[in-house]
Each structure stands twice: as structure tokens, then as C-alpha cells.
Amino acid sequence: MVRTINYKNILFSSVVMLLFLAAACKKDSATDYSALPVVEAYLLPNKAVEVRVSLQKALVDTNAYGVPISGLTLNISDGSTTRALTEDKSGHYILSDASFVKSSGTYSLSFTYNDLPVTASTVVPGKPSGTTISADTVVIPTMTFGTEPTAFIPVTVSWSNPAADNHIVVFRYKETWKSLISNRFNSDTTTSVELNAVKASSFELTERSFKYYGRYQVIVMRVNQEYLDMLNNSTKSSQNLTNAPTNVTNGLGIFTAMQADTLSKYLLVKAED
């Protein structure tokens, strides 16, 4: 059984932060990247359109976003109708009509910045279906010195994917408390988990898939290649910085769309009794 969710809550900082680090990255000889706006937009069927536009964020800047760019005239088109977005707060532009974005539609964004036309386009993927999970509980074996540990029993998330579309599997942490599975080599405080399943129709969880015990909301998201390009770029280290991938012409960042199925029952990750 699946239900829809508020997609805005499942966009993760690993992608968001990449949109704003380009000021510290290498420069292309033909482009002054420091003069380009950074766009962040995720289109969702039956949801308002929201677009954030900002200046690039320096590597040493600890703020979540760069300085907002206000006063722009943003338009979005579905190929037959063009609608203007309204700036409801600095650098944040919105189209409140939730009926405008539809499944399988093609959408383009356009505005002018520093006398340059900034454009981007994306296609809304179809909604995933057939999401199931092989068990409601992931049991993490207890390691005790001098004894043979219990064998871990894998748990598999599956979905229908006859066209081999790109998918992300998200486990959104639902606890207000945090209980680390292991303190060893664990400096990452991120509780939710985002796993790249690419064109598969299932993903097998291992005992290292999670850092914290507790309940997780299980979400299968169908995403576009531009989202995967941005996500995969997060594996680059600070010693090998390059300009983050973008599908925005005369700009940086991401303009993409996605849909998701969510299991109605949470997955419990617990220690062996």
C-alpha cells in the first residue's frame, strides 16, 4: 500500500549544498561562473511550483544558501501556456496553481539576469508503482566478543520498473531521538538515507545501510538524469573540485521533476534481541 507525501521534505542537503559551492570550483576558460545565478527547483505534480534563485555560495560560507536574487521576472511554460511566478520572499518565486504541473509534461523555466537569458527544461517522470518491502523490520546483529555473530537477514525494497527508469530509494528518519548503531568511525550525523538505485527495480539493504536505530519512512522516487548527476557529484572530495553539473543555460543549479510512492507502514531498524 502506498500514499503520497510532501516531497519538499525529502530533498537532501547533499544535493542542495552542491548548488552553491561553484564559486570555489575550477573556472571554465570560456565562462565566468562567478557571474551566474544558481537555480533550485523541483517540480511535482499537483504541487505549487517553487523556484529559488541565489548568488553562488563561497566554500567557506556556512549558510545553507547563497544571497537571494530578488526582483526577477520568472516564467514557466508547459509548451502551450506560460505562467509568471510571484516572488513571495527574497529570492523565492512561486506559482500557487497546483494543477499546472502534470505527470509526463515537459516544462521550461526562463528569466533574464545580467542581460543574459537564463533557461532550463525538464520532463515530469511517471509515478512509481508496485512498491513493496520484504520485511517490516531490519535486525542488526549484536557483536559480542568471543561469540559467532548472528547472520544478517537482508531486507529488499522492490517496485515496478519495466522501462528501466532512474530511481532513488529514500529512508526518512522519523524519530525525535537518535540512537547510533555503532560509534566506530561514525562522524556523520545525517539520519535519513538516500540510496541510488539507478535503473533497477529493487534494492537490497545491508546491515551498514543505516547509522541509527529507529523508524524510517520508505520512499521510492522516480527521478531524472539531471538529479542523479547532481547527486553523484557529491562523491567528489574537496581536493578535486570541479564545477557542479547543471541543466541550466547561463546559470548553475538544477531544474528538475520527480514523483514518488511511499509505503504506508514504517520500517523499523532495531538491535538483535
Structure description:
The structure is a single chain. This protein has 273 residues and is mainly beta. It is 5% helix and 40% strand. The chain has 2 domains: 2-126 and 240-258, Immunoglobulin-like (Sandwich), CATH 2.60.40; 129-220 and 264-271, no CATH class. It is built from 2 helices and 20 strands. The strands form 3 sheets. Strands 1, 2, 3, 6, 7, 11, 13, 14, 15, 17, 19 and 20 form a 12-stranded mixed sheet that branches. A 5-stranded antiparallel sheet has the order 5-4-8-9-18, with no helix packed on it. A hairpin with a 4-residue loop joins strand 4 (75-77) and strand 5 (82-84). The chain starts with a strand and ends with a strand.
